[in-house]
Amino acid sequence: MCGLAGFFNRNGAPADEGIVQRMMSRLSHRGPDDQGCWTGGPVGLGLCRLSVMDPTERGHQPFVTPQGILVYNGEVYNFRELRRELEELGRTFHGESDTEVVAQALSEWGPEKAVPRFNGMFALAWHEADNNLLWLARDRAGIKPLYLAEVGGVIAFASEAKALFAHPQILCRADMHTLTTHMFFYRLAGEWTPFESVRSLLPGTLHRIDGAGQTETVFFDVVRDLDPDRIVRRADESLEVLADEFESLFCDSVRSRLVSDAPIGLLCSGGVDSSLVTAVASKEQRGLPAYVADIESASVSEADKAREVCRHVGADFRPVPFSREDFFREWADCVYHNDEPLYFPFNLPARVVFRQAQRDGLKVLLGGEGADELFGGYSWQAEMYRHGQRCLRSRTVMKFFPRLHRLGKRM
User: Fold this and answer.
1) How confident is the model over 98-122, as pLDDT tens digits?
2) d(CA 62, CA 210)
3) pTM flag (> 0.85)
4) Judging by DSSP bridges, how do beta strands 147-151 and 198-200 pair with one another?
């Protein structure tokens, strides 16, 4: 991961490079390989880089082109396809990074057309110097974070909220309303953050800033863009056909994430999700290291299950011990890096695992995070599924939505 930061002075005052540097200092843990900053007119941009694709200086950021300046955190997995298309349009490339492809795509098509074409996880800022425009964007699922704060005519943004408070006009104050809400629901929804005047840019959003104002466009929303008719149309297809299609998509997804100029490893807990990723990745590249937290006195040993998976698929099993003392030792750092109340206990052993992988020279780890959300792995989702079965078979529902009958039969 990388860390980006910057700001836009709405009053037109020249950007102070020293402020950009101070903001970046709060993000140095996100990008230890390289740092860069750029200022022009009222805009300042900075990035701490973790180099995964093309680690040479040709991937240095901010990435400057005649049409604009880019800072970008993440990966666009279809960058090779986009590059070929851009080359056919006459674009010339000097390096092998996906950063250059993103910058060239933004230059060629403009953010409103280019960003929806990016298949990946990303947060970016793109400044069009000639038009004095600043664009911010975040990927469809919101995998990569991006925070915004607007105070006294300054609009600041960063990969982590703590970097915003390095700007002298943005104060770190608790938002008691959101914190109280967090106490009841154990999470913060939407754009809420624990800090006054700070919000999270929503997933699938493109944010446009100029001297006159701001506008936001949602280029993807999972509820808005869900196609129920497509689900109904495919209701009669056999489970085998759907399973084969899923397997193909899943393998392609894992394969695309193995493209890297830096060493890659795996996170394997022995569960269904991470084991599937481990199996597919190991088929593509034999002997990949697979890490798991070996938690002292755990009621169920993930390490034992992961060992069996790794033996079966040929991965290099690497358990990382985690003790009660480690839990308390890591607590404060995890709270600091979370930027909000810690409510996911596995963050603590995960931090120890990541540190060991870093010592082993790895920069990229593939895991099964997000699968529960996508495939209904939580108990409340199973209950919603059962509730949906009852509703779809209800005579009242069928009376008003007769087309749902076919879907209800499949469920």
Assistant:
1) 999 999 999 999 999 999 999 999 9
2) 20
3) yes
4) antiparallel
